[in-house]
Structure formats: C-alpha cells, structure tokens
Amino acid sequence: MRRPVVAGNWKMHGSRSRIQALVAGIAESTDARADVIVFPPAIYLAEVIGWLAGSRIAVGAQNVHAEVNGAFTGEISAQMVADVGGEYVLVGHSERRALFAETDAMVAAKFGAVQAAGLVPILCVGETLAEREAGRADTVVIAQVDAVLAAVGIQAFARAMIAYEPVWAIGTGRTAAPADAQAMHVVIRRRLAAADTGIGAEVRVLYGGSVNAGNAQTLFAQPDIDGGLVGGASLDGDEFTRICKAA
To answer: pLDDT at residue 29 above 70?
Structure first.
C-alpha cells in the first residue's frame, strides 16, 4: 500500500517570525500515518530544517539549478540543499515553467541533478485550461513525463514522486473534480507502468491545485491519488493540519 503524502509549498511567502510560528504549530499536530513535507523559501531552508529537527516533518527546496556549482547568480544547487539537510526538491512546478521559461529538457536535467545529490524529486506536471479545452490534457502531461523518462529512465521513478497540478486550478480556487483528477492520475500511472509495471503501481502521485481542508478528503479518497501538493492552504497551520489528517 502506498503511504500518503502531504507537501506544503510556501512559495515566496512568509517572514522569519511567521514561518517559525507556522512550523511550531504543524510540528505538534502531524499524524505519523502520512508523510509530511514542507517547502519554505530558500533563504529560510536551513532554519526550518533546524526548527523541525526531531519531528516527523521533512523539508525540501522549491527549486534548484541543474549544475553542481558555477557562475549562476541567485541560484542554489541540489548539493547545497543536501548539505543543509534537505531531503526533497520540487521540479518543474508550473510557475517555474510559465514564469521562468523552464522547458521539459531543463526540468529533466534538474530531476537528474536532484537524484545525483541523493535527494528525492517531486516532478510537477499539468496542463493549462486552453490545453484541456482543446482535448490535449493527456498529451501534454504524458509529454512532460516522457521528457524525464527519456533523460533518466524508468528506474529513476523508483525514488521519486509526481504531482499532477492542472495549471488552471493553481491559486485560482478552482479544483479539478475528483473523478477528473483520478483519471489523470491513472493516465500518469499507466504511462510509467508501460515501462515498468512495479514502478507504475508503486510510485506516489499527488494532486495539486487549490487543495484545502474542505476538498482534501474527497480528493484523497480516489484510489490513485496518494496525497496533495498544497499551496496557499499550507500557510495556515490549522488548515494544513486538517489536510494532513485527511490524508
């Protein structure tokens, strides 16, 4: 049985005092039956890892550069994340693809760099509203998965996760209907299973897109949805805790 996961992506939000209070609240109330991961802004990464030491909550980075080091002002590497005790990295979030022009090839390179540093990538995939309305949602998502498969191979997904996040549902308050989310999770899982049946069955696939305490239980009840990548609701300690309990 796949263990449920709830990941909180704090994006570019928070202050040192606000994040410290948030960490204290969620550290006391998480349930051991689900894996919980938080992704703070990079400037607070090491502190959050320290604040959560001894808890059940893991910490990851929202983004890394594909190179180990170099003249890349403002960037951090996967090795740096590992050096301060991080365990996970979000790769290919839709905001990185749309706002920072990350291509499928760049995402695949980052995925490989994360694993080379001994960390676990969470590959984010998803379609825009225009792509869904044009009937291309499956094609777009599979292409995003295939780009990583071509670069690193199916075995890499034995130590990775995928987050399906329809772009039109991120930060909009709109959520994919549970049946629609489930259908896309099946598409992703079948694509991996075509390369390796065991990995297709075992990889954990999360749903992201306006997940909140009100819809989490219904979404997580779907057989192929293994938890959530939570945005805005993860900045509210009480709500994030309720989502974790739903998982």
So the answer is: no
- Which residues are within 8 A (CB) of 117 and not within 5 positions of it... i.e. 6 or more apart? 77, 78, 79, 81, 82
Task: Please provide residue 65's backbone torsions phi and psi, each rounded to the nearest 5 degrees.
Answer: -85, 155
Residue 112 pLDDT class (50, 70, 90 cuts): very high
C-alpha span between 55 and 35 (Å, rounded): 11
Look up tokens 């739903």; give the residue: 246
Cα angle 235, 167, 237 (rounded to 5 degrees) comes to 10
Q: Using a cut of 0.85, tell me whether the model's pTM lies above it.
A: yes
Which active-site residues does the annotation give? Answer: 93, 165
Per-residue model confidence as pLDDT tens digits over 186-235: 999 999 999 999 999 999 999 998 899 999 999 999 999 999 999 999 99
CB distance 120 to 161 below 8 Å: yes
Q: Are 147 and 104 in contact (CB under 8 A)?
A: yes
The helix (H) or strand (E) run that includes residue 120 is strand 120-125
Tokens of 241: 């805790």
What is the amino acid identity at position 94?
Answer: S
